[in-house]
Amino acid sequence: MSEFLVIVESPAKAKTIERYLGKKYKVKASMGHLRDLPKSQMGIDVENNYDPKYITIRGKGPVLKELKSAAKKAKKIYLAADPDREGEAIAWHLAHTLNVDIHSDCRVVFNEITKDAIKESFKHPRSINMDLVDAQQARRVLDRLVGYNISPLLWKKVKKGLSAGRVQSVAMRMIIDREKEILDFEPEEYWTIGADFLKGKDAFEASFYGIGSEKAELKSEQDVNNVLSQLKGSKFKVASVTKKERKRNPAPPFITSSLQQEAARKLNFRAKKTMMLAQQLYEGIDLGKEGTVGLITYMRTDSTRISEVAQAEASQYIIGEYGQNFVQTETRKEKKQSNTQDAHEAIRPTSTMKVPDKVKEFLSRDQFRLYKLIWERFIASQMAPAIMDTMSVDLKNGDVTFRATGSKVKFSGFMKVYVEGSDDQVEEKDKFLPDLKEGDEVVKKDIEPKQHFTQPPPRYTEARLVRTLEEQGIGRPSTYAPTLDTIQKRGYVSLDNKRFVPTELGEIVDGLIREFFPDILDLEFTAKMEQDLDHVEDGKVNWVNVIDEFYQDFEKHLAKAEKEMQEVEIKDEPAGEDCDQCGSPMVFKMGRYGKFMACSNFPDCRNTKAIVKDIGVKCPKCEEGNIIERKSKKRRIFFGCDRFPECDFLSWDKPLARSCPKCDKLLVEKKLKKGVQVQCTECDYKEEPQS
């Protein structure tokens, strides 16, 4: 009989930990929460200090029975759920269910699932932290009060299946506000003048800077002509040369939000997928003879802190692989958000020595790609800065000044391993200038004025929205992935070229919440609420007081909305064709995966059709059918013949109506990271990429 029972959240984690602890320990999994608020009712006693009514989650009866049976046989029970608010709440619920004294040393926490970390954590058990439990409970009660009061109202006034929530409604508001910015945007004209210069045989580029030493803007073609009229001849004199050395520091190791952003940029992963894979890497991977080992530290964190042991191991690896001068020598002070909890370390590999290529054979393709990203980011964060040599040259012809800039990597430092991606700019590359000195003469070869127009702000990608939510102090690391998932499932937003676009339904719901529940959508109010929840966790305020302060105003808004909110009729848009089963008109409806066609005679006729988009290209295979846009089961767009299955032509790339000028075969638009490129499917013909 085992002397000690350890309860964790997942079977994968249980298997790994049991092997580390030995025969005296039996490790069981609770499979997440065992108790929660009921789904069928509010479950909050508003009149009695917002007391939550917890019940055993449906389907968890057998798990609970097994845990109770194991608990009776054990001398001591350890509760080892995840090291965060949610994990503390799970431990508290387990203690209540299994009659464990919450003040006893029953709680064990660890940041990584490795033998040393697990054994060390069991030397320092503690009591359950009720401040953490109260913080989680306050968040749960708050979200229930919002969701279970506003959602039924939306069901009644708009349509069934809708929902509202503190974080999801704010995220939706941000997407809708951005769309309004784009629609209201008025582009402004501006011009640039670029020129090619020669110094002997060396060619380089420069662009118009200003008149004399003053920078000048070119707002019209007339401004350009004024500049060009002042140029005399093709010779320019080098007026000044400025050389500098610039230091570039690496990005800090990952936190939850930055991991989601970078995985979206570099791996094209959705936030939900990133967190699923990170969970697998944390809980443990079977590494053959070595057994099951957790490869990364806990993946829900907002801290960039790194343990001294991990820093020392990373330094040892960097010295061995790259040399002493590649190790960072100065302690970097990372900027912390005001709402950072700093409860855990950053997301890092549990061992630097588990180099990605050494464990690749044990990982799926996507697990490997994410682990490699985490490993490289951590190693780079512990490396010396890169040093760049920069050069700025002013060229003069009369009073007209052109400026050329160049840079090159003098010392690669961390860039040898990893460079952070960006939503806004292209990664830095070497741009060489010839050896120029003051007084040198250079010759203008070509000059090219270009007209431009200012661009509206971009729509939110998942990465950009996560970053903005984090900057505004909205939500917490664990909330971002489910929030983005929810607003898509509800049909409030859709994805167009991986960017969020609000739907008509989303705009209707947002408008109603703005009118009747303005605080729910106020960014400052929501951020302050997050801070109040943090104060609960710190033991500074009572959770009931935080909820009561919110609910007093919320209840008034709710009563007003019940009386004054008008019913909204969402009319079905005619599809322009009749049902092929009953002859009634077909209409467009909004479903989980976007719009589809359905019979207007529902429920008597349940005929539905996918919306087919003809792209105006004849099928190159059968030459009879037309190419239409389709969607795979995973919602990925592809192109096929409308005569399928008679013709099986398929293409992931969009076919074009024009033929290749070189071989007369099919041209397609191939998506690149930055724009699209037209290519031939048969020969090597390619056109310049378009952003």
Relevant terms:
four-stranded antiparallel sheet; 29 strands; six-stranded antiparallel β-barrel; 691 residues; globular; 34% helix; alpha+beta
Q: Globular, elongated, flat, extended or rod-shaped: what is the shape?
A: globular
Tally of helical segments? 18
Tally of DSSP β-strands: 29
Main-sheet strand order equals 8-9-15-14-11-16
Largest sheet: 6 strands, antiparallel, barrel
Q: How helical, in percent, are the residues?
A: 25-40%
- First-residue to last-residue Cα separation: 67 Å
Percentage of residues in DSSP E strands: 15-25%
**Overall mean pLDDT score?**
89
- Which structural class do the helices and strands define? alpha+beta
Radius of gyration: 31 Å
Topology:
Elements (H helix, E strand, L loop, with lengths): L3 E5 L2 H11 L3 E5 L5 E2 L7 E2 L5 E2 L2 E2 L4 H13 L2 E4 L5 H13 L17 H7 L8 H28 L8 H19 L4 E11 L2 E10 L2 E2 L5 H10 L4 E14 L7 H12 L3 H13 L1 E2 L5 E2 L14 H15 L33 H4 L5 H17 L4 E12 L2 E12 L29 E13 L8 H11 L7 H10 L3 E4 L2 E4 L1 H13 L1 H4 L1 H15 L5 H22 L8 E6 L6 E7 L2 E6 L8 E2 L3 E6 L7 E6 L5 E5 L8 E2 L2 E6 L6 E7 L2 E6 L11
Parallel strand pairs: 1-2, 1-7
Antiparallel strand pairs: 3-6, 4-5, 8-9, 8-16, 9-10, 9-15, 11-14, 11-16, 12-13, 14-15, 17-18, 19-20, 20-21, 21-22, 23-24, 24-25, 25-26, 27-28, 28-29
Helix pairs in contact: 3-5, 5-17, 5-18, 6-14, 6-15, 8-13, 9-12
What does this 3D model show about the protein?
By secondary structure, the protein is of the alpha+beta class. Helix content is 34%, strand content 24%. The chain has 18 helices and 29 strands. A hairpin with a 5-residue loop joins strand 24 and strand 25 (637-641). It is globular. The protein starts with a strand and ends in an 11-residue tail after the last strand. Residues 338-342 have low confidence and may be disordered.
